[in-house]
């Protein structure tokens, strides 16, 4: 019974959050709910995941990425118009193992600091592997 109530409560909160992209908790603190996902299919090098929207900031709530081989990748905010020139590295090198998912977050609440206004979200795939999966995000 408790599990069902928790699931129902989460779905209610997710529905409320989706309408406005934000809710507040009992301490009156802002909770961001991500209502967008981008499929990722990145090969060696830099890939733009989310383009800029004028004056908006990107909030990342979660990701699930699987690599075709062992290696490493980074998620960062890049300066627009410079082929994702790194400005704010969020993760450092994340090691990946062949055919194993790297998962963080769940869609409600951010896992990294928001981007500066007008920046893009990018992935730097540093090794000869293929990354696939998704990233949950929103812009406010």
CATH topology: Jelly Rolls
Mean of the pLDDT scores?
77
Q: Please count the beta strands (DSSP E, at least 2 residues each).
A: 11
Which percent bin holds the helix content? 10-25%
The 3D shape can be described as: globular
Give the low-confidence spans.
1-20
Strand content: over 45%
How many domains comprise the coordinates?
1
The tally of helices reads: 1
| Order of helical and strand elements | HEEEEEEEEEEE
CATH class: Mainly Beta
End-to-end gap: 36 Å
Rg, Å, rounded: 16 Å
Secondary-structure-derived class: mainly beta
Any overview of this molecule?
The protein is globular, with a radius of gyration of 16 Å. The protein has 1 helix and 11 strands, in the order H-E-E-E-E-E-E-E-E-E-E-E. The chain has a single domain (34-139), classed as Jelly Rolls (Sandwich). The termini are far apart. With 140 residues, the protein is mostly beta strands. Helix content is 14%, strand content 47%.
